[in-house]
Amino acid sequence: MGIIDTSRKRWLALNGRTLLICVGLSAFLWLLRTMEGERTVTYAFTVELVGVEASTGLQADLIDSIAKAEVVLSPWDHLLGRWRPNREPVRLRVEGLRTPRTEVPSEQLGPEIAQRLGNSARVRNISPATLAINVRRGSPKR
Questions:
Q1: 114 lies in a domain?
Q2: How much is the pLDDT for 56?
Q3: Same structural domain for residues 7 and 51?
Q4: Is the pLDDT of residue 142 over 60?
Q5: Which long-range contacts (CB under 8 A, 24 or more apart) does 114-119 make?
Q6: pLDDT given at position 24
Q7: Sheet holding 101-105, edge to edge
Q8: For residue 142, is it within any domain?
Q9: How confident is the model over 33-73, as pLDDT tens digits?
Q10: DSSP state of 110
Q11: 18 and 44: one domain?
């Protein structure tokens, strides 16, 4: 009985190892299959004004400070973006604001958003389509 018991234990141990190897291999192949192609993902970004002239005595406020970008990117870049999110605001560069209400196309945010998300990122759409800036007289900051 001793020989039969040891051979049975070996057989069960071999089956357990084989099962673990097969499950691990199938999980790895499933991960590779899921990471193929491209994904369309929507990200929300805060927007910050840059380039508003402080010497003119005008104050500029961004009415919509949050923009949503629909981005097509690889699953690997999406996964990296989820692991290490970039929470800094996207900078909107404006110069020469004079009118009380100015609207700037949000397409200007596209290159900076694409650069943040990785090499495969392509910005499809940014909403709102225009960003409204309220310009008013104010005391210059010192």
A1: yes
A2: 60
A3: no
A4: no
A5: 114/71, 116/86, 116/90, 117/43, 117/71, 117/73, 117/77, 117/81, 118/73, 118/74, 118/76, 118/77, 118/80, 118/81, 119/77
A6: 95
A7: 58-62, 130-137, 101-105
A8: no
A9: 888 888 888 888 888 887 766 556 666 777 778 889 899 98
A10: H
A11: no
pTM of the model: 0.64
Residue 56 in domain = yes
Q: How far is residue 55's CA from residue 141's CA, in Å, rounded to a whole number?
A: 8
For residue range 98-129, list pLDDT tens digits in order. Answer: 667 778 888 888 888 888 888 888 899 888 88
Domain enclosing residue 91, as ranges: 39-137
Tokens of 102: 């100015």
CATH code for position 119: 2.170.120.30
The two three-digit tokens of residue 60, written as one number:
């500029």
The vertex-42 CA angle with 38 and 43, nearest 5°, equals 115
Neighbours of 121 (CB within 10 A): 22
Longest dimension (CA), the chain: 98
Question: Which residue in 45, 44, 41, 43 sits closest to 72, CA to CA?
Answer: 41
